[in-house]
Amino acid sequence: MIQDSTFLNPEFFWLFLLLPLAIAWQLWKCKQQTPTLKISSVNGFKNSKSLLAKLKPYLFVLRLFALSALIVAMARPRTVNISNQTKTTKGIDIVMAIDVSGSMLAKDLKPNRMEALKEVAANFVEGRPNDRIGIVVYAAEAYTKTPVTSDKAIIEQAIKDIKYDNVIQDGTGIGMGLTTAVNRLKDSKAKSKVIILLTDGVNNAGFIEPETASQIAQEYGIKVYTIGIGTNGMAEFPYAYAPNGGFLFKMMPVEIDVELLKTISKNTGGKYFRANSNSKLESIYKEINKLETTEIEELKFYDYDEKFRPFVWLAGILVLIEIGARNTIFRSFI
């Protein structure tokens, strides 16, 4: 009964300190009320004490238990069942525009840029349970892999399925990727609209200039965070197909249009990041996660189950037993 219980008035437990005083008072009182008789020998009185005389002191024990039960009852033991209900008050719609050009297979991040990004992006999605997220992939062209949705299972599967293939022409069309992402958010009713644009190169494809795309994003009130992925200097890039269908790699210079990415983020009120390692990429997504917080109202419902009544009943029964015994079978005893 007491296990997993809390007490509304635990200060009443201090009353237990009075019980030793009550015991001492009872012992002193019994000693004062017991007459004494001096005789030369008590041999004749051995084993002559009746059963009732032996049981009479236990009446006071009943009273102590009754008082203990009352003290516990006054402390108000109770169990509580807490249920939570959350309500998103200011949701965020997020589109991740991901570069899937061949250079994303470079091995400066482990095992390569694309796989490192997929792992970090999946963790980012998992940490945004109250937001809607969409996925846009781009190379020379761009398309929506997943529209903005609150179904995180769909988003996580879409991220898992991202790979380099021949579905779209190779190249880096930053303007195409950004415009497609803007198109997914322009009609959104969310309080905040965000694009996370990731690339590892220089804009060299597409018929929409990145600056134009950023102006469109600005007009729709969309904030763009840009991430340049890749180490400084040289990196191991794929440059040709091997006979077995895989890729051949060689060291090549890393080239990222940093000024362009900074301009895009500045024009839209976002921020530019540079990810030159797996840990840095992970920390960038964590920082964006902190910058774009969703306001959530949490309601807690407390259901209390009072447990003091059994102790009151126990105290009452013990008192009745004591009073009944003292006025019946123990009536002839002092």
Descriptive report:
By secondary structure, the protein is α/β, with parallel strands linked by helices. Helix content is 38%, strand content 26%. The chain has 10 helices and 11 strands. It has helices at 18-33, 51-55, 58-74, 113-126, 152-160, 174-185, 210-219, 258-268, 278-291, 309-326; strands at 6-7, 77-90, 92-99, 132-138, 142-149, 192-199, 222-229, 234-241, 247-253, 272-275, 295-306. It has a 6-stranded mixed sheet, with helices on both faces. A 3-stranded antiparallel sheet has the order 1-2-11. Strands 8-9 form a two-stranded antiparallel sheet. Helix 4 links the parallel strand 3 and strand 4 (132-138). Helix 4 packs antiparallel against helix 5 (152-160), helix 4 runs parallel beside helix 9 and helix 6 (174-185) packs parallel to helix 7 (210-219). The chain starts with 5 loop residues before the first strand and ends in an 8-residue tail after the last helix.
Features:
single chain, 334 residues, alpha/beta, 6-stranded mixed sheet, 10 helices, 38% helix
Strand order of the largest sheet: 5-4-3-6-7-10
Approximate helicity band: 25-40%
Shape: rod-shaped
Evaluate the radius of gyration. Answer: 39 Å
Order of helices and strands: EHHHEEHEEHHEHEEEHEHEH
Report the span from N to C terminus: 38 Å
Query: Total helix count?
Result: 10
Structural class: alpha/beta
Kindly state the mean pLDDT as a whole number?
A: 85
| Main sheet makeup | 6 strands, mixed
Contiguous uncertain segments of 5+ residues: none
Fraction in beta strands: 25-35%
Instruction: Report the count of strand segments.
Output: 11
